[in-house]
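thread: overnight batch results

M.L. [08:02]
morning all. the overnight job finished for the chain we discussed friday. pasting input first so we're all looking at the same thing
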Amino acid sequence: SGGGTAGAGALHMPRALWVTANPGTGREVFTQLYARFIRACGAISREEVVWIDGQELANSSDVAELVAVRLAMANRGCIAVRDVDALADAREALRTLAAALGGADSSTTLVVVLGSPSGMARICRMEPAFESRFPTHVAIPDFTAAELVQFIEQEAQGSPSGSLCLEEGLAPRLVEHLNETYGGGARGKELGEQ
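M.L. [08:03]
and the structure it wrote out:
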């Protein structure tokens, strides 16, 4: 149910996403959930996400071939390039990526690029045509320190009885520490999961 022929009678759903977010804010989970959602709506046939790492592209001797192989794997599903901002200093690789992704069937394949706000801004300045390929922009904000501590407390409560808990009065001190040490955002969720 919800699968069938991608695009046939499906609602108009954005199939080219430009996701701006710092690592640790849930951008990959967002991509996976969006792929599931548009599959359920009938816009794509498969919900699996085929990932390409930006650094992998930057190091590749044949970006076009690498993207072509992954596009074939993602056919009628989702291809996502995480940390595309690794290409901010590799104009030719970025142009090759744009051309290769341009070959994706936009009626049946979801294409997502993900990067940090500063990296994506550099890409926009360097290669504005790349950004124009992605008309739908999603900005995922960083967590505040208080949200991170709430996350840590929830994870602790979900652990086996008594194995993990925050001491009385630790939460406000942890918020202060996160703000002072990490700026309260992005990577703090990863710290909480550790």
